[in-house]
Amino acid sequence: MDRLVNTVRPYAWGSVTALPELLGQEPTGEPQAELWMGAHPGAPSRADRGEGPRALDELIAADPEGELGAAAVARFGPALPFLLKILAAGIPLSIQAHPTLDQARAGFAAENALGIPPDAPHRSYRDANHKPELICALGDFDGLCGFRRPAEAAALLSGLGVPALAPLVDLLGAEGEDEAEALRSTLVAVLTMDDATAEAAVRDTAEAVEKAAAEDPDGPYALYTRITRGFPGDRGLIAGLLLNAVRLRAGEALYLGAGVPHAYLHGVCVELQANSDNVLRAGLTPKHIDVPELLKVVGFTPGAPDLLLPSPVEGTPGEELYPVPIDEFRLSRFTLDGRERELDGRAPQILLCTAGTARLTAADGAVLELARGESAFLPATGTATRLDGAAATVFRATVTL
């Protein structure tokens, strides 16, 4: 068992207080957006096995089968296939989508062939992997996910009474029953309108959103005030009105596969994803927006997202699983009540404590305690580890073999 020392990513959209509160630290006054737990080379966790701290990706590279297990290496390769995070959004993240595995491989190879440096700000593909992800709210969590149906989006835009939005309303109804094409045409129009037109349209839309939200704080426009105030003047406001607004309560989750447009607006969540950092953006960001590449990646099928609730894991009392349609990551949650649980050691896993204090006991009797915000890496040794604690919550990230 290894206690992990993890890196906080200070992205501008991060909350100033949420992560410090979770970790029991004093705020620095700067945004703290994500706590990374895993072996991604961008910010690998570190573990000390008696010779000083070493990066987890280096430890795995030195002995892939010893750390990950032969079965995981055979199935997923010699690297940890998932990345676990705590995400704390103070203002909205960019509207974004992620590529399929084939798209990521092709895009990464194409940008390498062009000689674009891996850390270049205008690069779209930072690795050759896809980035499906699962988020589980630790409290109220607001976001946007997937496209509304065109008729619903048209009604939302029309309800603002902004003349500049009328052409977009027309586009949403222009393709008859081809909803995907109507949404595609509308998003293209938003992202490619000239700067002067966009500036005026966003200004008028923002004013209308603020007015509507003031008149009806529980109405459909209230959530979008996070965008008007967090990213004034950004055309992502209009793009965001095309997406479903979602509020997760603590313990509720969303799975986002390739091509699903989304934006996280506010709140704290546990996020588990494939080991990738590939993001194609559509707005709410000062970062690079590659419209042609984005349009290759985004899926335009409309529909409300499905909320996930955990289901009890047969044979493991106290463990609840969030089901996802892929095997590269598996997220479950333990609500500990003083009774001991047994974790099999066939696969690599990261355990994250989000409430109370949890205790891990290895087969050799070694004990590791995890306070709130702390995490541990358990190599695939093949031997069981015992988990216990009173009034503690522990998330378990692993793979499905």
Automatic annotation (TrEMBL):
Keywords: Isomerase, Metal-binding, Zinc. Pfam families: PMI_typeI_cat. Its EC number is 5.3.1.8. It is an enzyme of class 5 (isomerase). Gene3D superfamilies: Jelly Rolls, Phosphomannose Isomerase, domain 2. It catalyses: D-mannose 6-phosphate = D-fructose 6-phosphate. SUPFAM superfamilies: RmlC-like cupins. One of its GO terms (molecular function) is mannose-6-phosphate isomerase activity. Residues 3-148 form the Phosphomannose isomerase type I catalytic domain. The keyword Magnesium does not apply. PROSITE patterns: PMI_I_1. Its cofactor is Zn(2+). InterPro entries: Man6P_Isoase-1, Mannose-6-P_Isomerase, Pmannose_isomerase-type1_CS, PMI_typeI_cat, RmlC-like_jellyroll, RmlC_Cupin_sf. Belongs to the mannose-6-phosphate isomerase type 1 family. NCBIfam families: manA. This is mannose-6-phosphate isomerase. It comes from Kitasatospora aburaviensis.
